[in-house]
Structures are given as C-alpha cells and as structure tokens.
Design goal:
Elements lengths: L3 E4 L2 E4 L4 E7 L9 E6 L6 E6 L6 E3 L7 E6 L4 E6 L8 E7 L16 E2 L3 E6 L1
Parallel strand pairs: 2-11
Antiparallel strand pairs: 1-3, 3-8, 4-5, 4-9, 5-6, 7-8, 9-10, 9-11
Length: 126
C-alpha cells in the first residue's frame, strides 16, 4: 500500500508562485510514475502533470505548460510541483497521484492512477 501526503498549498496573489510537495510511503518509489491532478469546486478532476519513475519523462496539461514544472527526488520519496505565474483559474485542490507499478503513464484520465493523496488547497486571488 502506498500513502501520499501533499503539502505546500496556500493563498497567493495572481502572478505569484508556490511549490507543492508530495511525500510517498512504501518501497519501489523510483519505479512508479507520479503526477498531479486538480479539482475545483463544481468541476471534474483535471490532469496537471506527470513524471516517469526515473524522472526523465514529463508531460503537462496545455493550461499549465510553461508555468508549472514537475520534478522528483527519489532519494527522498518526494515529488514536487513548482507553480509560477499563477492565475485565479489555477485555484483548486491539488492531488498527488501514483501508479502501482508502471514507470510511465501516458494516459491523462484519473482512473489511470492507482493511488491518490487527499490534496492540498491552492487559492489564487486576483
């Protein structure tokens, strides 16, 4: 079983930055693809970014490309999401996700990932 715990959310003004962290329990962390989804009130969960187990491959939603960067430190079992140039439409609860065993996940649908954290709230004021 894998547990994911997010941190780093908060309230920030438009144009500001935040860095989210996700610490994972369990073994074989470096073998798993990890990612981030977000969900705003009244909306469906939305793919944000994914990173391969070895950190060499990444992919982003078009809405965050050029502003967000996903990275990982396998020695610390931690995945990060650096968010720059934040916009009010980035306001959401951000969830860390992990695959059970695959090193890369190309799919961007929520059901493609096996484990979910509870999320950390990001609020961007205009």
């Amino acid at each position: 079983q894998v547990q994911l715990v997010e941190s780093g959310g908060g309230l920030v003004q438009a144009g500001g930055s935040l860095r989210l962290s996700c610490e994972a329990s369990g073994r074989t962390f470096s073998a798993r693809a990890m990612g981030w989804f977000r969900q705003a009130p009244g909306k469906e969960r939305e793919f944000v970014a994914v990173i391969s187990g070895n950190g060499y491959l990444t992919d982003y939603a078009n809405s965050v490309k050029g502003r967000f960067t996903i990275s990982r430190d396998n020695a610390k079992n931690t995945v990060y999401l650096q968010m720059n140039s934040l916009k009010p439409e980035d306001t959401a609860n951000y969830h860390c996700v992990a695959d059970k065993s695959r090193g890369w996940v190309a799919s961007k649908i929520p059901s493609a990932f096996d484990y979910w954290g509870r999320g950390t709230q990001v609020t961007v004021s205009s």
